[in-house]
UniProtKB/TrEMBL annotation:
TM stretches of this protein: 23-43, 63-84, 153-175, 195-212, 219-243, 270-288, 300-320, 340-367, 388-410, 422-444, 451-472, 478-495, 515-535
Domain K+ potassium transporter integral membrane: 26-517
Name assigned to this protein: Potassium transporter
Protein localization: Membrane
Main location (coarse class): membrane
Domain of life: Eukaryota
Keyword Mitochondrion among UniProt keywords: no
Role played: Potassium transporter.
C-alpha cells in the first residue's frame, strides 16, 4: 500500500515538474514574441508626453505627476485588466478581438455566417469546461440582440474595426520602435542628420520583413534572451538613476500626484495623455499573440519580469528628467551612464526589431482569423513550424505591411507624429476589447449584468479619457491608422457581404430532391468510372452547379460526393471530428455528402491524404448505416442524416488501405477500369506534375468477410473501383453580378469592389489545395 502511495506521489511530482518546465519554457519564449513591444515603450514615452504644451511646465511636480500617471496606467490596464481578467477569456487558448467574437457567437446566435449546423455544437472544443448550451439562460438582452440583425451587423463591424486597428498597429509599431532606437545614434554622433537616421531605419525594416518567412519559432529562441537582457539592463539603469538623481521619486507612486498634476497643467496635461498612453502600447499583442503560448506562461512572464523592470525604468527616467529638463527629447539615451551607452544602444535596436516581430505575428494571426470567418479575401497561409501549431506566415500581408511601414517612416520622419498615430490605434483596440469583454461576462461567464457594467464603467472610463486625448491629435499624424483601418474595413466588409450574397443565391437555387429522384439511379445520364468531388458551400441540398454541369455534359462519375469545406467558430477542430458524412438519395444513386470542418486557426495542410481519408470515411459510413438499418434506428429521409466519422479508428473497417507495392492477405484487389492508353496518359501527366508524383501510392482492398451484407459489399466494391479509376474535382467558376434593379451602391460594391477583390486574391482551388491536374471548372453566373 505504502509502495503504491509512493509511486503515485512520484508520478504526481514528475507531472508537476513537467508542467513547470513547460510553463517556464513558454514564459521564456513569450519574451521574444509577445513582450518586445511593451518593453521598448520607454524609448519614446516621455518624449511624446512632453511634445506638446506640457514642455512649458518643466518643474519637479509635473514630472512626478507624469510618472504617477504612467505607473497607475501601467498597473490598471496591462496588469489588472489584461493579466488578471481578459487573459482568462481566451477562446481555447486564442486571444484577440476575433477570438472574443467567435466565443460570443457560440454562446449566443450573433454569427452572420450562414452555413452553421446543430452538429457543430457537438464538437468537443465548442463549449468550455463542459458548459453545454442547454444550461444557458436566455436573458432578455440576449433575445433582443439575436432578434435584431442590424445589431449583429454592428457587432461584426465593431470587431472588424478592432481587427483593422491591430493591422494598423502592425504598420506603426515597426516604424516607431526602429526609428526611436536608431535615433539614439544622434546622442553620441552629433553630426548625423535626420535623413541619414531614416535611411538606416528603413534598411533595418526591409531586413526585418524579409526575414519573416523563416518562421516565428526560429526567431523566438533568438529574440527571448535579447528582451530579457534588455529588460534587466533598463531595470538596473532605472534603479541607478533613482539613487543617483532623485531618490524622492518614489513619492510619486501615490495617486495624489495625479490630482496635483491636472490642477497645475489643466488642458495641457489632458492633451499630454496621448503621449503617456504609449507606455501601454503592446498590451493588446499580449492577448492577440496568446495562440502561440498559454495564458499562465504570459502571466508569469509579466508579473515576474516585465512589470518590475519597466516600473523601475520609468521611475529612473523621471528621476533623471527632474534634474535635467533640457534633455527631455532624448531622455532615455541621455539617462544611460556613458560607459554602457553603446551596448545598450545595440540592445535597444535589437529589442525594437523584436517589438516589431511581436505585432507582425499578431497581424498574421488576426488576418487568418478574419479569413476563416469569411471577412477577408483568400490569401496564402504558410505554416512555419513543425512543432508549434498555429504559427503562420502570410506572404501577401507581409509585403503590404512592409510597403505601408516604409511609407509611414518616410512620410512622417518623426517619432512624435508616428506616436500620435500609434496611440490612437492601440487605445481603440483596447476600447473594443473592453466592450466585447462586457458581453463575454454576461453571455459566456453568465455573471450578473452588474459585473459587466462595473467592468465597462471602470476600464471604459479610463480608456475613454485617453481616447478623447488621442482624438485631439488626429491632425498631427493621428489620421494615419483611421485611414488604414477604413481601407481594410471596407475590404473586409465588401468581402463578407459578397460571400454572404453568393451563399444566399446558392441556397435559393438548390436543385430539388424531387427532380433528382425522378431521374432514377443513373440520373438520366451516362455514369462513367471514377469519383466526382463537387465543391459547394451548401451544407444541405444539391447545388445548382451540378444541374448546370449535367445539362452541358450529360455524363457523370459513378460515385458522386458533394464536398463542403467550412469554418466553424472554434480555434481548432480535432482531426477525429473533422469529417461529417451523409448520403443523398437512395443507395443505388451512389451520392454522398462530406462536410469538412476547420477551426479559424486550423491550417489546411497541402497533403494528398484527403482523397484517401474521404474514401475510408465513406466506407465507414456505409458500414455504420447498414448496422443501424438492421437495428431499425436509421433515418431514411432522402437527405438522410449526417454522421461524424472518426478517421483514427480503423478497427472493424471492411476496407483496407495498403501501400501500392504491399501484398494483401485475404482481400479482393480491384483493378482500374481505365484502358491501357488512358493509364499511360495519366502516368505521363503525373510525371510532369511534381506535387502529384511525390504522393504516397496506395490501393484499397475489400476484406473477404463472410458475415458482410452483400449490398454493403457491392457498394464498397463500387467505391473502390471508382477510386482506382481516378478522382476529379469539380468547382464552380463563378461570375457575380448585381441585379439590374439593384441600387447604385450595391452595383458598385458587387460589380466593382467585390469583383476586383475576387480577381486579385488566391483562387478557391489554391486555397483548398486542389491539384490542378484533376480540376474541372464549371462557369456560373450569379445575379445577387
Amino acid at each position: 500500500m505504502d509502495q503504491e502511495r509512493g509511486m503515485a506521489s512520484d508520478h504526481h511530482r514528475i507531472h508537476w515538474k513537467a508542467y513547470y518546465k513547460n510553463l517556464f519554457l513558454l514564459a521564456y519564449q513569450s519574451f521574444g514574441v509577445v513582450y518586445g513591444d511593451l518593453s521598448t515603450s520607454p524609448l519614446y514615452v516621455y518624449r511624446s508626453a512632453f511634445s506638446g504644451k506640457l514642455r512649458n511646465h518643466q518643474d519637479e511636480e509635473t514630472i512626478f505627476g507624469v510618472f504617477s500617471l504612467i505607473f497607475w496606467t501601467f498597473t490598471l490596464i496591462p496588469l489588472l485588466k489584461y493579466v488578471v481578467i481578459v487573459l482568462s477569456a481566451n477562446d481555447n487558448g486564442e486571444g484577440g478581438p476575433f477570438a472574443l467574437y467567435s466565443l460570443l457567437c457560440r454562446h449566443a446566435k450573433f454569427s452572420l455566417l450562414p452555413n452553421q449546423q446543430a452538429a457543430d455544437e457537438e464538437l468537443s472544443t465548442y463549449y468550455r469546461h463542459g458548459q453545454m448550451s442547454r444550461n444557458m439562460i436566455t436573458s432578455p438582452l440576449k433575445r433582443f440582440l439575436e432578434k435584431h440583425k442590424r445589431l449583429r451587423t454592428c457587432l461584426l463591424l465593431i470587431v472588424l474595426f478592432g481587427a483593422c486597428m491591430v493591422i494598423g498597429d502592425g504598420v506603426l509599431t515597426p516604424a516607431i520602435s526602429v526609428l526611436s532606437s536608431i535615433s539614439g545614434l544622434q546622442v553620441r554622433a552629433k553630426k548625423l542628420h535626420d535623413a541619414e537616421v531614416i535611411i538606416i531605419a528603413c534598411i533595418v525594416l526591409v531586413g526585418l520583413f524579409a526575414l519573416q518567412h523563416r518562421g516565428t519559432h526560429r526567431v523566438a529562441f533568438l529574440f527571448a534572451p535579447v528582451v530579457i537582457i534588455w529588460l534587466l539592463c533598463i531595470g538596473v539603469i532605472g534603479l541607478y538613476n533613482v539613487i543617483h538623481w532623485n531618490p524622492t521619486i518614489y513619492h510619486a507612486l501615490s495617486p495624489h500626484y495625479i490630482i496635483k498634476f491636472f490642477r497645475r497643467t489643466g488642458s495641457d496635461g489632458w492633451i499630454s495623455l496621448g503621449g503617456i498612453l504609449l507606455c501601454i502600447t503592446g498590451t493588446e499583442a499580449m492577448f492577440a499573440d496568446l495562440g502561440h503560448f498559454t495564458d499562465s506562461s504570459i502571466k508569469v512572464a509579466f508579473v515576474a519580469v516585465i512589470y518590475p523592470c519597466l516600473v523601475l525604468q520609468y521611475m529612473g527616467q523621471a528621476a533623471f528628467i527632474s534634474k535635467n529638463f533640457s534633455d527631455v527629447p532624448t531622455s532615455f539615451y541621455d539617462s544611460i551612464p556613458e560607459p554602457v551607452f553603446w551596448p545598450i544602444f545595440v540592445l535597444a535596436t535589437l529589442a525594437a526589431i523584436v517589438a516589431s516581430q511581436a505585432i507582425i505575428s499578431a497581424t498574421f494571426s488576426i488576418v487568418k482569423q478574419c479569413h476563416a470567418l469569411g471577412c477577408f479575401p483568400r490569401v496564402k497561409v504558410v505554416h512555419t513550424s513543425r512543432w508549434i501549431y498555429g504559427q503562420i506566415y502570410i506572404p501577401e500581408i507581409n509585403w503590404i505591411l512592409m510597403v505601408l511601414c516604409l511609407a509611414v517612416t518616410l512620410g512622417f520622419r518623426d517619432t512624435t507624429l508616428i506616436g500620435n498615430a500609434y496611440g490612437i490605434a492601440c487605445i481603440t483596440v483596447m476600447f473594443v476589447t473592453t466592450w466585447l469583454m462586457a458581453l463575454i461576462i454576461i453571455f459566456v461567464w453568465q455573471k450578473n449584468v452588474l459585473f459587466a457594467l462595473l467592468f465597462l464603467i471602470f476600464f471604459g472610463s479610463i480608456e475613454a479619457v485617453y481616447l478623447s486625448s488621442s482624438i485631439m491629435k488626429v491632425p498631427q499624424g493621428g489620421w494615419a491608422p483611421l485611414v488604414l483601418s477604413f481601407v481594410f474595413m471596407v475590404i473586409m466588409y465588401v468581402w463578407h457581404y459578397g460571400t454572404r450574397r453568393k451563399y444566399q443565391f446558392d441556397l435559393q437555387n438548390k436543385v430539388s430532391m424531387k427532380w433528382i429522384l425522378t431521374l432514377g439511379p443513373s440520373l438520366g445520364i451516362v455514369r462513367v468510372p471514377g469519383v466526382g468531388l463537387i465543391y459547394t458551400e451548401l451544407v444541405t441540398g444539391v447545388p445548382a452547379i451540378f444541374s448546370h454541369f449535367v445539362t452541358n455534359l450529360p455524363a457523370f462519375h459513378q460515385v458522386l460526393v458533394f464536398v463542403c469545406v467550412k469554418s466553424v467558430p472554434v480555434p481548432y477542430v480535432p482531426v477525429d471530428e473533422r469529417y461529417l458524412i451523409g448520403r443523398i438519395g437512395p443507395r443505388a444513386y451512389r451520392m454522398y455528402r462530406c462536410i469538412v470542418r476547420y477551426g479559424y486557426k486550423d491550417v489546411q495542410r497541402d497533403d494528398d491524404n484527403f482523397e484517401n481519408q474521404l474514401v475510408m470515411s465513406i466506407a465507414k459510413f456505409i458500414q455504420m448505416e447498414a448496422e443501424e438499418t438492421s437495428s431499425g434506428s436509421y433515418d431514411t429521409s432522402p437527405e438522410g442524416r449526417m454522421a461524424v466519422i472518426r478517421t483514427s479508428e480503423t478497427s472493424g473497417s471492411r476496407l483496407v488501405m495498403r501501400d501500392a507495392d504491399e501484398n494483401g492477405g485475404d482481400s479482393t484487389i480491384v483493378r482500374s477500369s481505365k484502358s491501357e492508353t488512358l493509364r499511360s496518359l495519366q502516368s505521363l501527366y503525373e510525371q510532369e506534375s511534381p506535387s502529384v508524383s511525390r504522393r504516397r501510392r496506395v490501393r484499397f482492398e475489400v476484406s473477404e468477410a463472410d458475415s458482410m451484407d452483400p449490398q454493403v459489399r457491392e457498394e464498397l466494391m463500387a467505391l473502390v473501383e471508382a477510386k482506382q479509376a481516378g478522382v476529379a474535382y469539380i468547382m464552380g467558376h463563378s461570375y457575380i453580378k448585381a441585379r439590374r434593379t439593384s441600387s447604385f451602391l450595391k452595383k458598385f460594391v458587387i460589380d466593382v469592389a467585390y469583383s476586383f477583390l475576387r480577381k486579385n486574391c488566391r483562387g478557391p482551388a489554391v486555397a483548398l489545395n486542389i491539384p490542378h491536374i484533376s480540376l474541372i471548372e464549371v462557369g456560373m453566373i450569379y445575379y445577387v
